[in-house]
Amino acid sequence: MGQRLLIIRFSAIGDLLLTSPVLQYLSSCGHRLTLVVKGSHIGVAELLPGVDELLVWEESYADLIEHSKWRYDAVIDLQGTYQSRSFTRKLGLRVSTFHKPYLKRWLLLITKSPSFKIQPVVERYAHAASPWLADGILPMELSLRLPENETIKNALVFVIGGSHAGKRLSLTQWQEIISNVALGTNPMVLLGGPGDQKLAHELAEEFDYLIDATSYSVALGLSLIRDAAIVVSGDTGFMHAAALLDTPLVSFWGATHPNLGFAPWPVRSAQKEVISKSIWTPMSKHGKKLPFLPNPMNKLLVSEVLSAIEQMLRDKTTP
């Protein structure tokens, strides 16, 4: 019999998208899902599959504390922070919490050793939700609630953004990549957020065939990703979307690293990873560059990115 589940995941774009396999599976098991997110990420949450009700945490906090015991059967905390744990303790319900591997992450960042590779975050979300999952086999085909993309299809999409410098390529690196990709029939699109518009403008001025999509909404950006021929991206929400939507993907890594638990999921054949040669990789979970050390992205070999793109383009045209 399905249960009424309250699911906590406050933010952010990539993390919310990575809850999709678990949410979709919980819904297919007959559970009714209420998802609590922070107001700044409600637009992304509206795209997730299987969610019956969305609540904004800032607006619903007091009401949830007072009434959750009668409205829900259990809580799944996919945030796993002090804030979310403190909140869920006040609800008077059974709680299953997503656990963050703080010690293992610290050891990986210090030693750089693959011995401390962290389990993919999607699988850790599934572990937290396992009491309500039938057999633990997560869906590989997702039903994100995306708008139709009427104009740009089969594009080569360059995701030029990133939340921190350690996830972003420089203007010079992007110039080298774009100038060396063969100009074929595929449109070439620059995707990012409002903070990336200056970089997009500089690139579009130099390469007038580029389409600047940095002003697109997240939903439209995800539609571009779904319909793309290839996505080239750092460790971003759009990178995770490409993997989830089974779009061919070249991902590049500087201050972060796939071993930190945020590699493209699920693993598919049309994926390639290019990792910085810096001795400081990985440097941080979120891609922050430490102020006293060089940016590991400076040691990313653009030639390897180009080789990965070229191989994928050949694979798409080979019968």
How would you portray this structure in words?
It is a single chain. The chain is α/β, with parallel strands linked by helices. It has two domains: 4-132, Rossmann fold; 156-317, Rossmann fold, CATH 3.40.50.2000. 35% of the residues lie in helices and 15% in strands. The chain contains twelve helices and eleven strands. The chain has helices at 13-17, 20-28, 42-45, 57-71, 82-89, 102-111, 121-129, 171-180, 197-206, 218-226, 237-244, 302-317; strands spanning 4-8, 32-37, 53-56, 74-77, 94-97, 156-159, 188-191, 210-212, 230-233, 249-253, 271-275. The strands form two sheets. The protein has a six-stranded parallel beta sheet, sandwiched between helices. Strands 3-2-1-4-5 form a five-stranded parallel beta sheet, sandwiched between helices. Strand 7 (188-191), helix 9 and strand 8 form a beta-alpha-beta unit. Helix 8 runs parallel beside helix 12. The longest helix is centred in the last third of the chain and has 16 residues, at 302-317. The protein is globular and about 60 Å long.
Structural category: alpha/beta
Reading the helices and strands in chain order gives EHHEHEHEHEHHEHEHEHEHEEH
Shape verdict: globular
> Which architecture of the largest domain does the CATH hierarchy give at level 2?
3-Layer(aba) Sandwich
CATH class of the largest domain: Alpha Beta
> Radius of gyration in whole Å, from Cα?
20 Å
The main sheet comes to: 6 strands, parallel
Cα(first) to Cα(last) distance is 47 Å
Residue-averaged pLDDT = 95
Strand percentage lies at 15-25%
Output the CATH topology of the largest domain: Rossmann fold
Number of strands: 11
**Which strand order do you get reading across the main beta sheet?**
8-7-6-9-10-11
CATH superfamily of the largest domain: Glycogen Phosphorylase B
Classify the helix fraction into a percent range. Answer: 25-40%
Q: Can you count the helices? A: 12
Total domains = 2
Poorly predicted tracts of residues? none
